[in-house]
Automatic annotation (TrEMBL), chain A:
InterPro entries: AAA+_ATPase, ABC_transp_ATP-bind, ABC_transporter-like_ATP-bd, ABC_transporter-like_CS, Oligopep_ABC_C, P-loop_NTPase
Database matches in Pfam families: ABC_tran, oligo_HPY
One function term, GO molecular function aspect: ATP hydrolysis activity
Taxonomic lineage from the root: Bacteria, Pseudomonadati, Pseudomonadota, Alphaproteobacteria, Rhodobacterales
Origin species: Actibacterium naphthalenivorans
The name this protein goes by in its record: Oligopeptide/dipeptide ABC transporter ATP-binding protein
GO CC annotation: plasma membrane
Membrane topology: Peripheral membrane protein
Keyword Transport appears in the UniProt entry: yes
BP terms from Gene Ontology: peptide transport; transmembrane transport
TrEMBL record, chain B:
GO BP term (any one): peptide transport
MF-aspect GO terms: ATP binding; ATP hydrolysis activity
This protein's name: Peptide/nickel transport system ATP-binding protein
Family: Belongs to the ABC transporter superfamily.
Source species: Actibacterium naphthalenivorans
Gene3D superfamilies linked: P-loop containing nucleotide triphosphate hydrolases
PROSITE patterns (UniProt xref): ABC_TRANSPORTER_1, ABC_TRANSPORTER_2
Upper classification of the organism: Bacteria, Pseudomonadati, Pseudomonadota, Alphaproteobacteria, Rhodobacterales
Amino acid sequence: MGKPDLIIETRALRRRFVTHKPLVGAQTEVRAVDGIDLRIRRGETFAIVGESGCGKSTLARLLVRLIDPSEGSVIYDGTDISRISADKMRGLRRDLQFIFQDPFSSLNPRMTVGALVEEPMRAHRIGTRRERRARVAALLERVGLMPEHANRYPHEFSGGQRQRIGIARALASGPKVLIGDEPVSALDVSIQAQVVNILEDLKQEFGLTLIVIAHDLAVIRHMADRVAVMYLGEIVEEAPVAELFTAPRHPYTEALISSIPVPRVGARAGVATIDGEPPNPIAPPPGCRFHPRCPYAQAVCRAERPKLTRGPDARSVACHRHAELSLTGLAPDIAARSPEAEQRFSLYRAARATREGAKPSGSFPQPLTPDKE
Amino acid sequence: MPEDAPLLQITDLSIRFGAAATNLVDGVSLSLDRGETLCIVGESGCGKSLTALALMGLLPTPPARLMSGTAMFEGRDLLSLSLQELQNVRGDRMAMIFQEPMTSLNPALKVGEQIAEAVRRHKGVSRDAARNRALDMLQKVRIPAPEKRLDEYPHQMSGGMRQRAMIAMAMANDPALLIADEPTTALDVTVQAQVLDLMRQLQDESASAMIMITHDLGVVAEMADKVAVMYAGRIVEAGPVAAVFENPQHPYTIGLMSSMPSLGDRSGKLVTIPGIVPPADAMPEGCRFVSRCPFAQPGCALAPPMREFDRGHAVACWRAPLETGVDAPSPEIAGAA
């Protein structure tokens, strides 16, 4: 079996934050990311899921070195980016781009949309001024905006449109990896669907590797190839997306999945979920961090911290009892619809396609090459 | 009041802001029976929260203006009560749960005192009795160590616990009607499931009716008896929850459902609703969905009335049911209107 073609790999990655530093005595720390080994393959969509405070956003920022790790390494395409100089890192940023959750605070309100989208190209000295302008226009069109929008300011746009501007900006330098930290969770359902589709189209067109951080499990089910589930700074399970949802191996994954409100009447009624809320990450419980909420916990779980172990089937789980437990996932027919609903959906799809047919689909211009090369 | 009258009957509610030319809530009519749960679902700006706030008398007027409508609740019109009368109803016969408990609980008052205050205000019982009721309620919403929690401040609790405390306060006087505006939207998914379970259970025990405002069709499917789908200020489809999910009629309802990523194996790209909700100053004259609707015809410039086509299931679309190929009225008629 050939080695998978890895684009990003992390080894024992850790990041601590000092939360309180008293004049005397020990400071309190939170271990936001606590020993993570990830292997992300070129061209896949990899999702990281978890609840508030699990460390998923910190992990995302570590992957592109928006923050520095406390320990461990992040290897991008053979280079350990946690050890290189700031100068070298700046060069690599062309390849690694980030999309933020909040389209209202991540765009400089004093810059025009055109300047915002052009900025990464200027920073990396890509193209002539004219070429860059042309590319800005093409990028805006590609994400569903108009070239004329380049002269406007972010406040003139809706949330969904701003997220499109953020995507155009992230694409400007011709990246190889796009990391989205909750890229669609601030958006309404109908707008979210438009942005999800754009991300998937762009991924295909550019052969991007997409890393998506999200708490919305349906979005992950739809977008991801593989998923890592995080709990209190650790990865507790990693699996291909279909297997994770239909046959979870970690009790926390099972709890997450059984908690999804399913848009079908009678689908989740009466499923018991776990109690409590994630504990304070400043003082995580000993042993398995999930044990206080785990319905299957035994003595060993309270004493020993389980290691994430890779099975022969490309799945990993960190649970002492995973071999003996048989956990419940989503039923295979979870998305089944009534014949009436199915009929209306196909009518809708057909009507959409007919009206779309009038518009050209628009192909994307090739990335510009930098001056230097 | 006859026994079979609905608990709440909203008729033709319209709300406008300032000098705007269009209503942000436009001709909304809804009814709710005792013990029933009605979910109002829609996206940002569709008017679902405004409707809830209007019922509670919490809309600031001005800038909001009530253009028309009545909301009959236990023999009174909620929309024409004096402040004094409103204060007597709110927190007693009718209570509200908000999305963000941190901003709706008083940060300077202990949780137990806040609940007890609501009881004393409406039931006129002693301090001790009110405190006991507060303790009771914290137990009911399954807050661990309730004796201790009574004397804690909201900031000492987690998000999930705060939302439970809000529910305890809302239910303390056994309201006949509970209005919950996105009560679980700010919570993590496992905590959301716990709070939804709790709300369902409390509602079963108390026989309260509930109006739940949400943007999440999954939450609707779990909680609702009836559902009303709102778009740009109007109800476009309403009916029993199973009917709306299994036999959706309005193109917006269908588009909204097909925009949602499925939990099953993926079947290609999401089928989206194109465009965005028109801004208030550019609202189409007739059907407000017309600018985004793949079934729109010239005749849709005439506003379609809500029409009931099956028991309790109504839709505001000329072209429903879509498979019959029925046309909107001819453009001449629409133009004349």
